[in-house]
Specification:
With about 260 residues, the chain is an all-alpha fold. Helix content is about 85%, strand content about 0%. It has one domain.
Length: about 260
């Protein structure tokens, strides 16, 4: 472990930069935890723990937007918490070998979401405008959709924010600041609930997770400084190349090893 802390801190730093500017930090932090020798399910739980501080600080920054919609938030918080419980429980019931085999597919799903998420959200926003807040789609469907998203977030955190934005577009939200605020709230609730369950089951590698968290916090701070210098689309291209490469490596290691 003598040198692992440096690589974990570096991974957390770059993950924090990516999360603040373009998203996709888990494509760096999750593999870094695995390379540091953290068991696969514990690495997933630890990655959720390390990412949570960024969600909390982001949600706090959007507190004014959240206050304006607080009447709508109680149901969202309840469903997100329920989904986080179910997702975390499912993860802990999954055999480690099965979860290891599922990782390439989960990463592929998150990669596709990252690449096409903006187009999906734009399409859904047009649908909501044309169909008066999706009047033909029942409230029950939206509740079940949010529950499914929250279960995914409790099970595997990567890509949760992008899926949450798609849900909010489908639900009729159009103000991007409000959407980002509620997205972060969903991520916070799902993550906090999942972390509590993982902690009780002793699935969090606290040392490694704390080092990654320190990196993500410092990376997020630096990102605020450099975001005006580096154009976002350059960072986005880097995340796409990184995510496709890492996903490909996991497919090769899993199915050709």
């Amino acid at each position: 472990m003598s040198i692992d802390w440096f690589w974990l801190l570096a991974a957390g730093f770059f993950g924090g930069v990516l999360n603040s500017i373009a998203g996709g930090g888990s494509f760096i932090t999750f593999p870094a935890l695995l390379m540091a020798g953290v068991p696969v399910i514990s690495a997933n739980a630890t990655n959720t723990f390390a990412s949570c501080a960024g969600y909390l600080s982001g949600a706090y920054a959007f507190s004014d937007e959240l206050r304006r919609y607080r009447k709508n938030l109680y149901l969202i918080i309840f469903i997100s918490a329920l989904g986080g419980v179910v997702g975390a429980w499912l993860l802990l019931q999954t055999p480690e070998a099965l979860f290891r085999d599922a990782i390439p597919w989960l990463l592929l799903f998150a990669t596709v979401l990252f690449i096409f998420g903006a187009r999906i959200n734009q399409t859904l926003r047009r649908l909501t405008v044309n169909q008066a807040r999706m009047a033909g789609v029942g409230a029950v469907f939206l509740i079940l959709l949010l529950l499914g998203i929250s279960i995914y977030g409790g099970f595997f955190n990567a890509g949760l924010g992008i899926i949450s934005l798609s849900y909010l577009a489908l639900a009729g939200y159009s103000n991007i600041n409000v959407m980002n605020a509620i997205k972060l709230l969903i991520s916070c609730v799902v993550s906090v609930i999942a972390i509590a369950i993982f902690a009780v089951q002793d699935q969090i590698a606290w040392y490694e997770g704390t080092v990654v968290m320190a990196g993500t916090l410092s990376g997020g701070y630096v990102a605020a400084r450099i975001s005006k210098v580096i154009q976002q689309h350059h960072i986005r291209y880097f995340v796409i190349v990184t995510s496709v490469t890492i996903t490909g490596i996991f497919f090769v290691k899993t199915y050709a090893g």
